[in-house]
Hints:
The structure is a homodimer.
Chain A: H1 7-20, E1 29-30, H2 33-40, H3 44-56, E2 60-63, E3 67-70, H4 84-97, E4 102-112, H5 114-121, E5 128-138, E6 141-151, H6 159-171, E7 180-184, E8 203-212, E9 217-224, E10 230-235
Parallel strand pairs in A: 7-10
Antiparallel strand pairs in A: 1-3, 2-3, 4-5, 5-6, 6-8, 8-9, 9-10
Chain A binds a DNA duplex through residues 6-8, 32-34, 42-46, 48-49, 51-52, 62-68, 200.
Amino acid sequence: MATSDPVYLRVVEDIRRQINDGSLPPGSPIPSRAQLTRKYQVGETAARHALRVLAGEGLIIGRVGSGHYVRERPDLAPLHRWRFLDHSTPFAADLQSQGRRVTWDWHSEPTEAGPDLARRLRVDQSATLTKTHYVFRGDGRPLQLATAYEPLGFAAHNVEERRSLVTRMYAHGVKITEVVESVQSRVPDPSESDVLDLPAGVHVLHVERTHWAGDRPVETSDIIIPGDRFRMVYSMPV
Amino acid sequence: MATSDPVYLRVVEDIRRQINDGSLPPGSPIPSRAQLTRKYQVGETAARHALRVLAGEGLIIGRVGSGHYVRERPDLAPLHRWRFLDHSTPFAADLQSQGRRVTWDWHSEPTEAGPDLARRLRVDQSATLTKTHYVFRGDGRPLQLATAYEPLGFAAHNVEERRSLVTRMYAHGVKITEVVESVQSRVPDPSESDVLDLPAGVHVLHVERTHWAGDRPVETSDIIIPGDRFRMVYSMPV
DNA sequence: CGAGGACTGCTGGAGCCCCAACTTTGCAGT
DNA sequence: ACTGCAAAGTTGGGGCTCCAGCAGTCCTCG
Lengths: 238, 238
């Protein structure tokens, strides 16, 4: 008898089922907290927790003042991948603990944004970006190659710098925290803001292209959501 | 003035800082909800939300009836990686939407557990496991190779089967949900249950070794935590 | 002395409420 | 016909409380 497990799970599972079987197609609204409490006869706490869980899974997205909606590409929400900037330091520590020799280096150069990067980073096409090449090696063998593009002054080469970058972002009027989540972008990338199905006020900070110990690059963008969280958007051109 | 951002963040940031700078070494207890409300002069809701956020980040772990504790390897908590079983289906859909031809196949064979797998899956050394080889191809080129070991009867070859597997798990008295999280395992793997710093009652379901479009394998274990969530544990032998 | 039970503290689930900030809608007035 | 504004609905932050189940600890009783 599955009667004694958390009630919020009943709500989560029912909504998830509806999303999966198509009863709730992408873009359609999820009942509000108040409606859920009535519909499922649960308290507000359970309704809200259910919405938070589904949002955490990337199946739905909440828009303040409007409601929760089914994500365009729910299926790819939990995809994560190791990236130079986020994980090189801990990964290196891990390798070193195994007696491996870990090295990495990079060199940066200025470059013009151009149409594609301009759109993704939301800067002017003629804006100058910092283009950085990274090489990450274990026992001399390259494990990861990455090329990153960032607005001038925002380049960060490791996790610590990335943290101090947060401070710099504050100075530029962008408020961020450090919780990390991920979303899949549509690869052909239609056009405007809600392509990535993100709330208003989003800032893209960083676009990175990584070769991870192989021959297939992964493209990554960092998206800073003011006052909310840190997101990574992935696309994998094959 | 950072006075107006959420109070729970103040708690989160302070504890995170203490963990990062070593004031709270691995294993040490985090103040309880009641203590946090007093210490930071916040409500219980904020205290609890802070603990949930930190637990979600993998920095701390909550043990029912005992308390929250600093994780052994906090740094690697947010590592995720694409795996055959979790993401092949959506990834395939993505590739197909780009006009790519996607194929995969596998073949299974029985095998004896042996000491290492027996410990990880918590079965007898002489137990028979299902060993499965997967090949995942995009336009004929192999993108991912994986070898998975599972207790007999639990093999799943795609996301849908994996869901029905949940049902089968129920039949075996294991209660699980589908939220996914990840933890890094210690690679040398000392010995017993709390190696992975997981609560009691944990079941390991699946051990997988993946070559992801490259030459470096990733080892993955699925850990089923009854009534709680689904975890993946990673180690990356280089 | 040793085993078992009571007690305390903790987590996680759940309910209810209030509020600020934001979106949407629809109406009133020009 | 159009503009602007107010009202209603919704999210996210926060507060308070209660309870079940679990883990220690301590104390009592055999």
